[in-house]
Amino acid sequence: MTHTTDFPRGPRRLALPAHLRTALWLAGLGLPVLPLRKGKLPFGNCPACTRSACGDRPHMKVAGPCQCPAPCHAWGAATTDQDVLTSAAWAGAWGQAQAVAYHPGGAGLTVVDLDNADAVAWARRNLPATTTVETTRGEHWVYRGTMRSVNGVRDGVDLKSTMVYAQWRGPGTGSMVPLPDTVRALAVKEPTTVRPTQVAVSAPAPAWGGECRHRSPAYLERGIAMAEQRITEADRRVHTTVYRTFLAVLSAHGRCGCLTDKHVARLFTAAQAKGESPRHCTDAWDNARTTLGL
């Protein structure tokens, strides 16, 4: 895909709703776009895709748009296909849209999301100047190049590139430069602050009750510790690693009644420390249970 040095200044006027007009302009530039509803949230799954009923697995998706005809699965719904954007399936979403988002990685970009004044000051001291876009609480610094997306690499600093979306807030100012090694290095460091979100999930209902019937409680503890380590050490395809780890734990302990909510919380905490959202964790856990018939 060919990119310009900077974002162009704005779309041509068309006889279309404002957000759709912006979306078509961005799509023409090669930015995969999607509508956002109130609260900067993507529209929920369409009925055909609710809880991945269509067979799509969001946690396994690595590139490309969702195969469903309606806007769903957040970043996976982002597209540059103007026929899709103006189709009847999207009409309802654009009619309710409060903003437009784009998939940075799909356009060959990385956004350093600076969420407060201290984060902005840190970036100005440590990162190469590039296209800068003002946000409600801070700034987006946009670089050419893609990388793994990670939340919380520093207080108030998120990296948005592959498998995420960023709200379009205008073309910003300054010339866009290549993604520097200083930003790539942030993704391989341990986050300075991780605040896992509590999610209402449950271990499978005990089939027999009591301690693990396989060997001993120590066997379960080793299994959970190994699962945490596998997630923590993942350096790519984090979504896939989290799902497969959940699947392995449930395969071993999902039917014997030894798993507790505390064990599940430990796995979710490890996944969120790698940048997974609470929803991704819940989807991966539910999909693993469904696969095993739990």
For this entry, give a set of tags.
single chain; 294 residues; alpha+beta; 5-stranded antiparallel β-sheet; 4-stranded antiparallel β-sheet
Give a short synopsis of this structure.
This protein has 9 helices and 9 strands.
Can you tell me about this structure?
Strand 1 and strand 2 (41-42) form a beta hairpin. The model is unreliable at 57-64, 190-199 and 202-211 (pLDDT under 50). The termini are far apart. Helix 6 runs antiparallel to helix 7 (238-253) and helix 7 (238-253) packs across helix 9. With 294 residues, the protein is an alpha+beta fold. The longest helix has 16 residues, at 217-232. It is globular and about 65 Å long. The chain has helices at residues 18-28, 82-85, 88-96, 117-126, 181-186, 217-232, 238-253, 261-273, 278-292, and strands spanning 33-37, 41-42, 99-102, 109-114, 131-134, 139-144, 150-154, 157-160, 166-167.
